[in-house]
Amino acid sequence: xxxxxxxxxxxxxxxxxxxxxxxxxxxxxxxxxxxxxxxxxxxxxxxxxxxxxxxxxxxxxxxxxxxxxxxxxxxxxxxxxxxxxxxxxxxxxxxxxxxxxxxxxxxxxxxxxxxxxxxxxxxxxxxxxxxxxxxxxx
Length: 138
Ligand code: AMP
Ligand code: ZN
Prior knowledge:
By secondary structure, this protein is α+β, with helices and mostly antiparallel strands.
């Protein structure tokens, strides 16, 4: 299923042009128009799902199966030394385009891309409490 109003559905169907690097029956990958680094690629499912949790596991599995080769190709083509794979879900998590996508961002030591990674600490007992709550939801 696709969404006629979705920009990434239009890209996957070829209605909107893109710098495509890979496509098959499940997946489509293209260069991000606003790259955080050279060779920044977006990997999307052909079908429209807004967020990762909405994807059937088999479709998500096939999509993720395309990641290792894509990561290797993007890093080698960009002459990079490492890579970040990011996937934003929901506005609170900085998702702007509501069609599942994985960012593949080639990295070099000392490049301009910075994470804000405000690591904190759990108060006593909270970690076990959260692990139990998550286990119970699975
Ligand atoms: P996110 O914030 O995770 O939803 O990321 C959306 C990404 O889509 C941004 O990095 C945009 O630069 C990228 N983007 C939006 N429109 C296009 C487009 N037409 N072609 C390529 N990338 C796009
Ligand atoms: Zn879509």
